[in-house]
Design a protein that fits this description.
With 316 residues, this protein is mainly β. The protein folds into two domains: 14-171, Chitinase A, domain 3 (Roll); 179-315, Chitinase A, domain 3. The protein contains four helices and 18 strands. Strands 1, 4, 5, 6, 7, 8 and 9 form a seven-stranded antiparallel β-sheet that branches. The radius of gyration is 20 Å and the shape is elongated. The two termini are 32 Å apart. The relative contact order is 0.17. It comes from Cellulomonas soli. Keywords: Isomerase, Rotamase, Signal. It catalyses: [protein]-peptidylproline (omega=180) = [protein]-peptidylproline (omega=0). Residues 228-315 form the PPIase FKBP-type domain.
Length: 316
């Protein structure tokens, strides 16, 4: 069962859909004795046949340009999830907790056709150590350097996709918003921060607003977020009455999405634009910019949503 990965998700983009662990089938731990430079790292569910099959997939093309994935045969199928390094990088070390900027191209195992790619648009990001990312990918990148190129095969009873992944940068992000405090506004939920920065709220008593409210709580010193950028955030979410429904703080993870791409609800896409990196922002999202009249998980239909979002990074 797929976790509701960030309640603000409206429709996951391909990178999230493929890289989230629950979407590619189970992904158990890789062999802890394996060296990061070994040619293959398999999830526990991947068979020796899957490892051998991925070894027959070739990757051609220069670093920094969209490569060509050639399958040994079509249809090409895998039963589990498996990854291998194709070319080791020579840049900075990839470390746990860093935001890793990647380009990728994905092909359909049935015929080798390109399903999606980032080389003609903009890179996406993952966070090393995020438990929601396919473990085989985290494992294969552990101990590697910027510039590494890897193949990730994701197989199930329904379909197989092969992704070529190239790490183009790594970024250290702060653990919380940092900047100047902004005076609170009457009539909105009151936000209190724990010592580590985790927010909690005291619900407002009035009628929920019908328009999007974007209220900075901390003003960061970074550049303003623009549509099309991939932003990395920490967040917590509540209903208007103060009932909590999701938080990345509970797992101490970050969440990345591309602004304006439809990966998140409209209230997020609109609310973060123009806010500076390092800021913490209170978003009050009316149903029309959230989930509307659709019940979503523990969020009732017609709900006004309250988020506290720490904007930690933005990548063009």
């Amino acid at each position: 069962m797929r976790r509701t990965y960030a309640a603000p998700l409206a429709a996951a983009g391909l990178a999230l859909t493929l890289l989230l662990s629950a979407c590619g089938g189970s992904s158990g731990a890789a062999d802890p004795t394996a060296s990061p430079s070994e040619t293959a790292t398999a999830a526990a569910t991947a068979s020796p046949e899957d490892v051998a099959a991925l070894a027959e997939v070739t990757l051609e093309g220069d670093a920094g340009a969209q490569p060509t994935i050639t399958l040994p045969t079509t249809p090409f199928t895998l039963a589990g999830t498996v990854a291998r390094v194709v070319d080791e990088g020579t840049g900075a070390d990839i470390k746990d907790g860093q935001v890793v900027v990647i380009d990728f191209v994905s092909v359909d195992g049935s015929d080798g056709s390109v399903v999606s790619e980032t080389y003609t648009s903009s890179p996406t990001t993952i966070t090393m150590g995020d438990p929601n990312i396919i473990e085989a990918l985290t494992d294969v990148l552990t101990g590697q350097k910027v510039g590494v190129r890897a193949l990730l095969g994701i197989g199930s009873t329904d379909a197989t996709q092969i992704m070529a992944i190239e790490v183009v940068d790594v970024r250290d992000v702060p653990a919380r918003a940092e900047g100047d405090a902004v005076a609170p506004v009457d009539g909105l939920p009151v936000v209190t921060l724990a010592d580590d920065g985790e927010p909690s709220i005291t619900a407002a008593t009035g009628t929920a607003p019908t328009e999007l409210v974007v209220q900075p709580l901390i003003k960061g010193a970074g550049a303003a977020v623009e549509s099309g950028q991939t932003v990395t955030v920490k967040y917590s979410g509540w209903l208007w009455d103060g009932t909590a429904f999701d938080s990345s703080w509970t797992s101490d993870t970050t969440f990345s999405f591309t602004v304006g791409s439809g990966q998140v609800i409209d209230g997020w896409d609109q609310g973060v634009v123009g806010q500076t990196v390092g800021s913490q922002v209170l978003l009050v999202v009316p149903p029309s910019l959230g989930y509307g009249d659709t019940e979503t998980g523990s969020i009732p239909a017609g709900s006004t949503l309250v988020f506290v979002v720490d904007i930690l990074d933005a990548v063009a």
